[in-house]
Amino acid sequence: MTNVVIIGGGPGGYEAALVAAQLGGAVTLIERRGLGGAAVLTDVVPSKTLIATAEVMTTMRGAHELGLRVGDLADLTDAFHVDLAAVNQRVLALAATQSTDIEGRLRSEGVRLIDGVGRLYGTEHVVATTDEGEERLPADIILVATGTTPRELPAARPDGERILNWTQLYNLRALPERLIVVGSGVTGAEFASAYNALGADVVLVSSRHQVLPGEDDEAARVVQQAFERSGMTIVSRSRAEAAEVVGDEVVVHLADGRTITGSHCLMAVGSVPNTAEIGLTEAGVQLDDRGYVTVDKVSRTTARGVYAAGDCTGVFALASVAAMQGRIAMWHSLGDAVGPLDLRTVCANVFTAPEIATVGVTQVEVDAGLSNALGVMLPLHTNPRAKMRGIHDGFVKVFCLPTTGIIVGGVVVAPIASELIESLSMAVRAKLTVDQLAQSFTVYPSLSGSIAEAGRRLHTHSAERRAGY
Ligand SMILES: Cc1cc2nc3c(=O)[nH]c(=O)nc-3n(C[C@H](O)[C@H](O)[C@H](O)COP(=O)(O)OP(=O)(O)OC[C@H]3O[C@@H](n4cnc5c(N)ncnc54)[C@H](O)[C@@H]3O)c2cc1C
Ligand SMILES: NC(=O)c1ccc[n+]([C@@H]2O[C@H](COP(=O)([O-])OP(=O)(O)OC[C@H]3O[C@@H](n4cnc5c(N)ncnc54)[C@H](O)[C@@H]3O)[C@@H](O)[C@H]2O)c1
Fold first, then answer.
1. Where on this chain does FAD bind (predicted)?
2. Residue 115 counted as an annotated binding residue
3. Is 189 strand, coil or helix?
């Protein structure tokens, strides 16, 4: 039997445990907080459950335009009020159920679960510290999947009541009157969008000229405009230096001397890896200058027999990537067929209103000359289904290689972009051409009709390019 010891029970750890058990390993997983990890208990699952409620409010906001009335109200959201205590109770219950489901699945596959803190003791043992004491576990293979923790600014430490990080938001019993969100990365933008839709007065402090600096520029512009139109205040090119509670308010101090006052403040200024004091460097595992574990494309670290997966590696902070890195680690270490991690086919979604979904080659890569892909962008406002549903914002963008027409990337900005991106994700993975995309049937009328239409437009462009125009 090969002894596999996994530290961390998030998607990187638990998906690896399932593969290792399937391949006949004797698997032990050590988790200090709960199965499913931060992904299930504090990050992905709670935030997307909260956003599901916010989406209903966004739909209600557009209901008047579609001819729906409640009394004399011009805005149907005025007919609702958000019972945040009930929303958060649902959010936390759903996360707990998801965690229990994962625990049940791991147990049924024969994985030994230890409720405690794990650390490496060289490369052949892991020490688990539990309420009962310490246990030294022999390990032929170790997987480190310890994730990250919210980053804190020294002068803006969360108190859990008025200054919060995203893991503490679900303790709120009532909607904040005025929520200051510091940081306009994906986390900040998603919560700003959700709380804005739920009816809070939201101020978003953004260090750049535009929100979502890591996303497609045109897509981020659409989201920023939608935020501003729906009443959110965006304070651009501004960095928060400090936050303090003064009476019943929070005062956020910006680097340029201005202050912003609100009832609550959410700090969403990034994360730091959970890699300190768990015996990594002592075991020969190299960390980069920010503390992330250095891994290759099959999740190997610099120490023999020690693998790492997920956010602690600093490779695309996504649950799907963490899970794939964890599976690859086990396929590789336990001798199954395995291919290297291919980041060119990863698809991701920002759950704002509207959503931004992306796959493959990006506009930044094209503009920088790193890819010679051709792209077309079709705004959704001419799409018949979008008109019917009152969707005014959004677009579809498709990138293909000029000579072959092979699809290499795409962006969808729409209310359900996370679902619409699948056809482009499949096309990128299967190396389909724009002609194959164009010739596949789409339902009429449908938003996905615009994706096929982009394929038809690219047929013309790539034909012209081939002919040397
Ligand atoms: C607000 C928010 C929303 C997000 N939404 C999405 C989304 O919609 N889609 C998406 O794909 N990604 C999303 N992400 C990213 C996603 O949460 C991460 O990519 C994912 O959680 C990474 O999984 P992981 O297994 O690496 O780590 P985690 O999920 O962080 O799990 C690591 C686990 O290890 C445990 N641990 C750490 N150290 C030890 C130790 N020494 N001993 C024992 N246990 C330990 C921790 O307690 C934790 O439970 C979101 C992130 C945030 C912050
Ligand atoms: N839907 C999803 O898949 C999803 C959701 C949330 C997070 N994530 C992933 O998690 C990772 C982390 O995202 P994130 O948004 O938490 O962190 P991030 O590091 O990407 O963004 C933090 C932002 O805060 C800004 N910032 C830092 N200090 C500041 C200050 N003092 N004042 C104002 N702004 C400041 C930074 O410039 C940056 O834009 C990303 O890779 C993201 O993809 C994914």
1. 48, 118, 311
2. no
3. helix
Task: Write down how long the chain is.
Answer: 469
The CATH architecture one would assign to domain 3-149+272-342 is 3-Layer(bba) Sandwich (3.50)
What local confidence, expressed as pLDDT, does residue 276 receive?
98
CATH class of 354-467: alpha beta
Determine the topology of domain 163-269 in CATH. Answer: FAD/NAD(P)-binding domain (3.50.50)
Distance CA(128)–CA(131), nearest Å, equals 10
Q: Ligand 1 center to residue 153 CA distance, Å?
A: 20
Determine the Cα angle at 229 with ends 224 and 231, to 5°: 100
Strand partners for 273? 148
Rg of the chain on CA atoms, in Å: 24
Amino acid at 64: H
Reference 409, options 417, 401, 399; nearest CA is 399
Q: Is 262 annotated as a binding residue?
A: no
Atom 11 in ligand 2: residue holding the nearest Cα: 317
Q: Does the beta carbon of 274 sit less than 6 angstroms from any atom of ligand 2?
A: no
Closest protein CA for atom 33 of ligand 2? 239
Query: How many other C-beta atoms can be found within 10 angstroms of the C-beta atom of residue 224?
Result: 22
Asked if residue 361 belongs to a known ligand binding site, the reply is no
Which ligand is the nearest neighbour of the Cα of 186?
Answer: 2
Q: Kindly tell me the sign of the dihedral angle through the C-alpha atoms of 380, 384, 386, 392.
A: positive
pLDDT means per 10 residues, the chain with 469 residues, are 97 98 98 98 98 95 91 83 97 98 98 98 98 98 98 98 98 97 98 97 97 97 97 98 97 98 98 98 98 98 98 97 98 96 96 98 95 96 96 97 96 97 97 96 97 93 63
Q: Is 326 in the pocket of ligand 1 (CB under 6 A)?
A: no
Q: Exposed (0-12), middle (13-18) or buried (19+): which is 92, by Cβ within 10 Å?
A: middle
| Number of the ligand closest to the Cα of 28 | 1
- Any idea which ligand is nearest the CA of 16? 1
SS3 138: strand
Backbone angles phi, psi at 10, to 5 degrees: -80, -170
Confirm whether 3-149+272-342 and 354-467 share one CATH topology. Answer: no
CB count within 10 Å of CB 176 equals 22
CA dist., res. 328 & res. 326, Å (int): 5
> What beta strand segments (E) does 10-54 contain?
26-31
- Are the C-beta atoms of 393 and 413 separated by less than 8 Å? yes
